[in-house]
Design goal:
The protein is mostly beta strands. Helix content is 0%, strand content 42%.
Amino acid sequence: ASAATQTSVNLSWTVPGGNGSGAAKSYDVRFSNTVLDSTNWTSAIQASGEPVPLAAGSAQNFTVSGLFCGRTYYFGIVSRDAMNVDSGLSNIASAKTASCSKLALQSGTLPMGEVNIAYDSGALNFTGGVAPYSLVVDPTGLPAGLILGAHGIVGTPREARSASVAGVVIDAAGALAKVKFRVTIVRPVSIATLSLKAGKMNASYSAALKAKDGIAKYTWSVDPATPLPGTLAINPSTGQISGIVNAPTITDIDFIVTDAVGAVAKKTLRLTFN
């Protein structure tokens, strides 16, 4: 056994003859992480893709792949001839695969989410090792409503909290590392303004709406069913109301704020001009 990589070991041997003057017809190559002998041979893992035997006495090679990094493996071969007679078990060769790579989570902080809004963290990216990666997390650490999906954290969160989640990542070569990441779920967006100041007719008016919670940035609008009076308009980026009203007015306006993940909050506030 030689030329070990993280996931493979090369085997070389001298091709045996057959029973009598015949030739070997096929090989059965097996391996295990424990020392092989005739008592545990049948329970060992069988390699796939063994080569067809060459002429007796020839040198032959075969690479066993699909192994895990940083492990010691034991290999043996049984050959079969044209009369379907099996040889005894070969000598046992051993080799240790190359050391495992150091794995790490590329970012330990996931995008923020909001209660009752569908959440998708996007793919969790890892550095080091051999793709693809498998991640297992402790589900009790996730905010209620979230689960580990095929590529990241998904679901519809039902509680607002910041959680530190522990997990284990394994790469295709068998490297293993503990990882931690943080996911924060915030309360639903709402309009924090309690009331709007009264204005004077034929005078410039200005008032600012405020939002809280949710995920910035916010976009402001007014329900078309309750339009602003006079020349009043709302700045969609800042929530600033400005303009002039030239008649006595008392009206209830339905203001709407939409946050960065599409969550919407509405609040009715009264505007008065004397």
